[in-house]
Amino acid sequence: MKGPIEGQSVQKCSGCGIGLQTLNPELPGYIPEKSLGREPVVCQRCFRIKNYNEASSVTVDQDEFLRLLSQIGGKNALVIHIVDLFDFDGSLISGLQRFVGNNPVILAVNKIDLLPKVTNWNKIINWVQKQCKEQGLKTEEIILCSAKKNQGFDRLLDAVAERRGDRDVYVVGGTNVGKSTLINRLIRDYSDLDQELTVSRYPGTTLDMVSIPLDDGHFIIDTPGIVYPWRYSELVNRKDLGTIMPENPLKPMVYQLNEGQTLFFGGMARFDFIQGARQSFTCYVSGRLNIHRTKLEKADALYKEHAGELLSPPDADHLGELPEWTRHEIRVPKGSKLDLFVSGLGWIKVNGDQGALTAIHAPKGVKVVARPSLI
């Protein structure tokens, strides 16, 4: 029988049943070493829920998450799936329907505050509906919201009240999508947690699903955030994460390009306009990410000489941490309105309808897709 891994205690959390560990605050079961001798012994997340009504984001890898998800189909559950509108294709859980069975799903689309103010929200909802249909995901309701601006959450709470009946509420989503903010609002509005709550009132759970008691005897089930390896946000260091993840509304950058021109997005990705009539392309990326235009024939040499310096982030010290780039050639048919999407980094809208031959270069494994234009 194997012993505990380094930093892992044989003790388990009295709140959620997870094995305790003292090495990594980002992983399930973390507890500061000085707290191991306390009674009762609880992981940092359960401690924060009990004392501060605050759910923190804990993550697991994809295989572990799918094992957790497979349990929901056999439960009487209302599922809230929260996704990131900025990284919609990267944060939507593929195949969610086969795991949740006939349980109803509310799709909470977070970070709407990042879109320009002139956005037509009905068109956004229609776009989301079409994307869900393509993925085979049936939704009871799609709610646009902003955790940062506290927009749409009242409607989301009303939808939960209308639809949960005698069900427990399962909240699922990836990392950095706003899941912990939603959990905290649900705790505040529906839970009877208070400062005198004893840890023993937490049901013992496995694999880091935390059950938070509601005032009617049911529970909010906080599932760990899933780490999807194809999202850029999972690859970069914390310093660069702040550069590529926008905090303020996107300011579309429009470029009129001739064929044979290239755009570099710092040292993170590259867009080539290989062939087609002169036309415009609109870039929706973080305002802190510098865009550099050059000729396609010079692009390889420019990257080789200036990656990590002129073309940054990442800077030279972190350049080697990312996988080598893969080239994705995408032909845009005449008459189509498409986004060329790079998960976690943003997208390029092809504005013309003349057709174009393009290519995206991004680190190997990062999701790159052509999709119907969001805006």
Topology:
Blueprint: E1 8-12, E2 19-21, H1 44-52, E3 59-60, H2 62-69, E4 77-84, H3 88-91, H4 96-100, E5 105-110, H5 121-135, E6 141-144, H6 153-163, E7 168-173, H7 179-190, E8 210-213, E9 219-222, E10 225-226, H8 238-244, E11 253-257, E12 261-265, E13 269-275, E14 279-284, E15 291-295, H9 296-306, E16 325-332, E17 338-342, E18 346-350, E19 356-363, E20 368-372
Parallel strand pairs: 3-10, 4-5, 4-7, 5-6, 7-9
Antiparallel strand pairs: 1-2, 8-9, 11-14, 12-13, 12-15, 13-19, 14-18, 16-19, 17-18, 17-20
**Rg, please?**
22 Å
Spell out the helices and strands N to C.
EEHEHEHHEHEHEHEEEHEEEEEHEEEEE
CATH architectural grouping of the largest domain: 3-Layer(aba) Sandwich
Number of helices: 9
Pfam families: MMR_HSR1, YqeH-like_C
InterPro entries: G_CP_dom, GTP-bd, GTP-bd_ribosome_bgen_YqeH, Mito_lipid_metab_GTPase, NOA1/YqeH-like_C, P-loop_NTPase
Domain CP-type G: 66-229
Protein name: Ribosome biogenesis GTPase YqeH
General description of the model:
InterPro entries: G_CP_dom, GTP-bd, GTP-bd_ribosome_bgen_YqeH, Mito_lipid_metab_GTPase, NOA1/YqeH-like_C, P-loop_NTPase. Residues 66-229 form the CP-type G domain. This protein folds into 2 domains: 53-226, Rossmann fold (3-Layer(aba) Sandwich); 234-372, no CATH class. The chain is an alpha/beta fold. It has 9 helices and 20 strands. The strands form 5 sheets. It has a 6-stranded mixed beta sheet, sandwiched between helices. It has a 5-stranded antiparallel beta sheet with strand order 11-14-18-17-20, with no helix packed on it. Strands 15-12-13-19-16 form a 5-stranded antiparallel beta sheet. Strand 5 (105-110), helix 5 (121-135) and strand 6 form a beta-alpha-beta unit. The chain has helices at 44-52, 62-69, 88-91, 96-100, 121-135, 153-163, 179-190, 238-244, 296-306; strands spanning 8-12, 19-21, 59-60, 77-84, 105-110, 141-144, 168-173, 210-213, 219-222, 225-226, 253-257, 261-265, 269-275, 279-284, 291-295, 325-332, 338-342, 346-350, 356-363, 368-372. It is globular. Residues 1-7 and 193-207 have low confidence and may be disordered.
